[in-house]
Amino acid sequence: MLAKLYIFDLDGTLYEGTDHFDYYAKRLALDVKEEVLTEYWADYESMKNGNHPLHIGKAYDVNNDLILTIDPMTLKVIEAVDWAGTKKNLDTLSYGMKTVTFDFENIVAIGDGWWLPFACAKHHGVENCYRRYLETKEYMVTEEFELTPIPGLKPFLKKLKDQTNIVLMTNSDEDDVGRLLKELDLTGLFHEVITSAQKPSNTDNFFNELIEKYGVQPEETVSIGDNFINEIAPALLMGMQAVYINEHPHPTELEQLTQVKRIHEWFEEQ
């Protein structure tokens, strides 16, 4: 059944690949002290392979250098461990069982590959990661970087736009989004593009605004993304449908939740 509103994420959803994450890690490595550089790279590779206590799906407390397990449906901390994986007593920590607020600087959700180099660099003493992130974004629009469009995605989005409402909502800024959409040949395919969305902090607000603006019900709305905390859990809590794109299925099983490894697995069935 065709929904009345589809809300798409961009990074990790409408394009694939991990080369840009590795490039980001290399740029950050320039700021890592030489005496811990070997450990930095060992940790990063371990994190990518899912063999480190910090991996996609966790959260990272930068100030306390702690790795947090968050209940995605309540955003409460249910476990905290140090970099080596040793459990900490939640009763002695300030957040305890409180709802966590992600601010992209102090407590960050490791929802996709962008945050692995960031957390690894922070643990190894790098103070300013943002400039290296900007360098990576600039690299992604050069001829050196190949961003391969997902086969079949453009005609699918074009057909979907003719039939219903489709919105792009991303944490990337306006300039980055414009360049990426041009590179992917997806410019002009969305009824609306929301940039610098500050997900997950503002996800609920944007979802509510879009539902009201397009005059639809939550159950008639679908959120599509690769970050469970940013795009999926908020949608499910509001009664929306959701499509979670990730190599590793989430343990949550609900009728309104579809899980796929690649977005084409979903849109080819629509």
In short:
The chain is of the alpha/beta class.
The number of domains is 2
Order of helices and strands: EHHEEEEHHHEHEHEHEEH
Report the count of strand segments.
Answer: 10
What overall geometry do the principal axes of the alpha carbons give? globular
Beta-strand content bin: 15-25%
Description:
- This protein is α/β, with parallel strands linked by helices.
- It has helices at residues 19-29, 37-48, 115-123, 130-139, 153-163, 174-184, 203-213, 228-237, 263-267, and strands spanning 5-8, 59-61, 66-71, 76-81, 107-109, 165-169, 192-194, 221-225, 241-245, 257-260.
- The protein folds into 2 domains: 5-16 and 148-267, 3-Layer(aba) Sandwich (Rossmann fold), CATH 3.40.50.1000; 19-139, no CATH class.
- It has 9 helices and 10 strands.
- Strands 7-6-1-8-9-10 form a 6-stranded parallel beta sheet, sandwiched between helices. Strands 4-3-2-5 form a 4-stranded antiparallel beta sheet, with no helix packed on it.
- Helix 1 packs across helix 4.
- The radius of gyration is 19 Å and the shape is globular.
- The N and C termini lie close together (8 Å).
- Keywords: Hydrolase, Magnesium.
- One of its GO terms (molecular function) is hydrolase activity.
- InterPro entries: HAD-like_hydrolase_sf.
